[in-house]
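Hi R.,

Here's the chain you asked about this morning:
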Amino acid sequence: MVQGFDSFYNNPGLLAYYDDEISFFKLNVNLKGDALDVLNLYLGGDLSPDDPAALLTTLQDKGLTNLLVGLDINGPLSIGVIGNNWGWYLKNSTNVYLDLPGITSTADIVLREDLVFSAGIAVPFKMRFGDSFFLELVPGVMSRTTLRAELRIEEDLLGFMGYMSDFSSLLADFPLNISPMFALDAGFVINVYDIVSLSGVVKDIYTPILKYPVSSLSDALGIFTSGNDTTGNLVYREINFGLSSDIPLEYYPIL
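And here is the predicted structure, written out as C-alpha cells:
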C-alpha cells in the first residue's frame, strides 16, 4: 500500500497506519498526451516560438495537426509531518493543459497553480474479543485550504503566441481567476484482525469555492478588498469505499 505523503489525501483514517515521515522537498513531473512529442521537437530545434508561421508548418509536417497536451508538476514545495495518528502538509502544484482540435482551430489552454495546506487526524479505537481476535475502528477528519490561480484562454496558436510578448493585454482579454477553497474530508477504516480492512471516505463534505477575476497584476494584490465581481460555488462531494485483505501464509494450507 502506498503510504505517507504520496497518499496523504486518500483517506484521513489511514493516518493511523502511516509510518512517521517528514518532508521538505519533492518534485514530480508528469507529461501527458502529445507533450513528449512537442518537447522532443523543441529540444531538437524544430520548433521556434519566435517564428509562428514556421511553427505551424512544422506541426503540420510532423502530423501534429490536433494536439492534446498536459503537464503536471507537483512541487517543489512539499513540507509536512506525519506521525502519532495525525499530520499536516503544505504543497504546490502546477498544471498546464492544451486542447487543439485543429492546427488553425481555437485552442483551449488552461494554466493553473495551486497552493494547498492540509491537516488531518485519525483516532483509533481497538475492541478485543477473546485473547487474540480484535476489531479496530479508525475515524478521521482532514481540512484542506487551497489558493488557486487559474487562467483559461480560448485562442488560436498564432493569437496565443502574440500574447506572450504582451502579458498585460492577455489578462485584459482573459482574466486570471484567484480562487480560495476550504474543504473538509471525513473517512474511516475498519480493521479486522489485521487481515481484512474496509475503508470509506467522503471528500468535499462542504467545499465552497470563490472566484475573484483579476485583469492586471496590480489588481491581484488587492483581490480580497476590491469591488470586483465575485462568483461562488460548491464542489461536488465524492464518496469512495475500499476493501482489502492481507492473509498471512500460516492461514494457507500446505500443499
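One quick note: Residues 117 and 178 are 16 Å apart (CA to CA).

Cheers,
M.
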